[in-house]
Amino acid sequence: MALTRQVISTLKDDGTDIMGPDILGFHYPDASIVSGSLLTVEANHFAVLKSRGAVLAVYDTGQYPVQTPDKPLLGGFVTGFFGGNSPWQYEVLYVNRAKLLVRNTGVATSAEMAEMTYTVDYYIHVDSKDDALKLTTHMPFGGHYIKAEEVASYAGPVVEQAINQVIQVTPMEHINEHIHEIVELVKEHMSAFLAVYGITLNDAKVLVLPKDERMRELISLRAFGLTEIEAVRYYTALKMAEKGLVSAPNAACGTPFQIGGATMGTYPIPSGDASAPLTGKP
User: Fold this and answer.
1) Kind and range of the H or E element at 92?
2) Of 141, 137, 42, nearest to 96 (Cα)?
3) Is 243 exposed, middle or buried (0-12, 13-18, 19+ CB in 10 A)?
4) DSSP code string of 94-150
5) What is the pTM of this model?
6) Residue 58's closest CA among 144, 132, 109?
7) How many Å apart are CA 188 and CA 185, to the nearest integer?
8) Which H or E element spans position 186?
9) What are the tens digits of pLDDT across the range 208-226?
């Protein structure tokens, strides 16, 4: 019977790649890798080969034969002799080198102690083989994957600290005036933190909004140049209009609404003798 060499790859039987846009790292789930197996690395991946915890090599794009430290034994002879497992305990860790989108969300407090929600979207990638080695060394695998959401959980405290550094000393109404400062501070803190894991930060976008929906609408009205009391009146009028109340325009203008008033037009009585007949002439 002819011996066939095992092919190690991230491609599934249907030709699709198991490492999608939310997968940063993938642990090849096979403990029977033996000498002579072919390690395939796609154009957007790195691969780290380990044996019993020690890193043997880091591979770029291409196809490479796996070699044991001792004289190689092939295929079924090895797995059969050792009860189905390789005596060298090989591990292959794939690292995605494409740009991935990661999101962090949280709550910060303004200078008035008002709660503000923030959303930080940022792009990351692993740039080199050395960075791929850093990632597999410093970030543990949860099962067979390192997902983008795990990177977000690691970076969460750093993002929160950077954003609070500006928001906590800024009045709520003026936070968006400092959004560029917040973005640059987040980039600075995140770049230094992610570099430890071999991850490069490409770009970041920060969105900060009041947590309370009513406050968001009031600030939007203030953006039209309304005073605080005018914004409250218009907000109240909008809510009344949604309920179909006819007094909504009065609430917006700040004027009283008359109930049961006259519905017919009135004409002034001409001055002079009240007993004189009305001729219709001025």
Assistant:
1) strand 90-96
2) 42
3) exposed
4) EEE-S-EEEEEEEEEE-TT--EEEEEEEEEEE--SHHHHHHHHHHS--BTTEEEHHH
5) 0.72
6) 132
7) 5
8) helix 179-195
9) 988 877 877 777 777 777 8
